[in-house]
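User: Structure please.
Assistant: Input sequence and predicted structure:
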Amino acid sequence: MRILEIGENILFQFARPNETDTYFAGYRDDLRAGLPYLGLINLVRIMRRAYRSDYDLIVLHPPLYPGWHPRSFLAALKFSLLRGNPAGVFGAVFSPLWFEFLRLLPNVPIIAVDRSDNPGTPAHHFFLLDKAEIFFKRELPYDHWQLLNGTAHRRLPGRTFRLQEKWRRRMAKVKPIGLGLPHYLYQPADAAFGQPKTSDVFFSATTSGNSTVRSNVGALIDLLSKAGVKVDVAEGRLPQEEFAKRCAQAWLTLSPAGLGWECYRHLEAAVAGSVPLLSAPTIHRYKPLVIGEHCLVYYPDEQRIVEIVEAALSDKMRLADMAIAARQHVLDWHTEQAICRYLIEECRAQISKRSASQPTGRSQSR
């Protein structure tokens, strides 16, 4: 299978490198990892190969800002020139502009994947709602139409807007997707699995300049500590191996929502053998960790964190079973390889469904 992948939040290149041609298109030069930028010459080559049907699947990761937006230009300078890599300036500035020309791709199997923290869909992504078989979105509101707040609609799309055939057709393509646990996070978490338990709850995350949910964690930790719960709180950013080890040593890992609800910590904790303790979901989740089976949940607007944690710690055999189930669920569905496999299967299923719904040549002639 030949795959073409273009964008910033690259996925297939790391999961299926031998099958994937990848071009980086985004202002984050620091994330490029040596991949070639999407430029004019590469764009022409891509178009030729696409029109020859050389690719079985094209995967597009749209940039957060369009290439003509001032923020895209300024961020390109920030993550290249100001970080000591002037050679990356040209590609960081212009690759998001070249990305817009991908709307000229032929009608081949295309999927769009947005794994950013952004809970909305900006206007420069709309062409992908037409072009792609499926538009996969990580921070997908339960009401999918809220993706369009302030972009396709000035405010919240109302009934009249939601009945428009064009937008009904577009929104039918939207599906949830997960982050995909990368190998550099999976490996230390897997290596830490099986550590003896030394704490009840572990927490390590940036709280300043983050979500209100995460900024209130200090108060939750105080409540737990006063109730006699043994809480391990990391001071400062931990090396990845140490973070994974301390996850594994805790019965529960507290993982409140950050800039987006989903984060790698949910998955790392599970792989390390700790039960994730999550703030209540605010998104339509992909293959979710099931509450009460794989994870525990608290509501930030309720004062029940102590009750929830004490009830869980009262049955540690059940917690151990939950940790094993959560770990297996992540291995089955949330590694980069598993995410890529799912994306391919969903695209094939969508193409088959569309083909089956189209009338045959004989029925058209009647």
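Confidence is low (pLDDT under 50) at residues 362-366.
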